[in-house]
Amino acid sequence: MASSLSLYAGAGFNVSAVLARALTVSNHSWEYGTAAEALLELDNPELSVFGDKPFPGDGLPPIVAEIPSLQYAGQFIRLDNETLVDGDGAVGDPAALGVSAVLLGQQDDQYSAAAQRQADFILQKAPRYQNGAISHREALAELWADFTYMAPPFLAYQGVATNNQSLLREAGRQCQLQQDILRPQSHKPTRGLWRHIIGPSDAQDLGLWATGNAWAAAGMTRVLATMLKWGPSKAWKTEQDQLKRSIIDILDGAAHGATKGKPPLLCNYLDDATWFGDAASTALIAAVTYRMAVLAPTVTKDRHLQFADRLRKAIIAHVDNATGLVAPTVNSLDWKSRTPSAQGSPEGQSFTVLMYAAYRDYLKRHK
Hints:
Blueprint: H1 2-7, H2 15-25, H3 29-43, H4 68-74, H5 98-104, H6 109-125, E1 143-144, H7 147-161, H8 165-182, E2 197-198, H9 210-229, H10 237-255, E3 259-260, E4 265-266, H11 279-295, H12 302-317, H13 346-365
């Protein structure tokens, strides 16, 4: 066990085991994409948008070796369809593999073509909400907080890949349009948080779901990193400031949200202390905070980092280092169930890896 723990210094838990479980249990489009992103940020951080120079010469980084994240993602990407993978009726979820497809396109044009078809599907075929926000569902105009992690980061990255500033601007605009509908007007301390789902179907969920807010904040953080680090968009202060404010608002809302357990995890619904503590959202909110401390240190305050440190320590206490299991978590296919999943969740596993990668990179900047 000591060697597994020391492989990723300072983690405080068996990162290798957590990652191995993430890769084993993922079996849906968004889970594949999140696991691929976690693997990229962990083992090839220089290729992720959080790297020091992710866009050398204002282009994509060259792929000169076998990259574990891309090897993993490549087995799921379809090269003969308008979406990268079957999304089971979701517009956004297949795009979770979009960054992987774009990077794979550096070596094989078939992946570049597949990525372009995926972008076209999102932009041209998906339903739109009344304000222009792209729907998360194919059959009707319905907005989900989850969408913000899946589609906008891919659209932003595709904008860089095709030297399309308008596409990157649209990625940022979509984040704001989603927020305009999903964030309720409120004066409560949790006012920066988003509702989970708004639309005409029975799936509508007006609660402040913790994982939905973590998805949204993490997705906007990836879009922000892309804007800050690509030459043509470095001066887009208005768009960058909007994203920074939206992300910090979610972090502030989460800090005022309900927690449960010892050590405490964020509650599954952040405005309701009767819910169980959820390790998945807890890990991703911590990851976002560490990323923001590097990307936007002037708006990420000591209180945010203190909060992230508490969340990270809570996660460490909820990892089984023998099996890699991170639990308890929400059942991601039944988020309204009052029974937490003792077997964790695929994204919860990946979120925990993302948390470690973000914390490691934060420490490198603050030695």
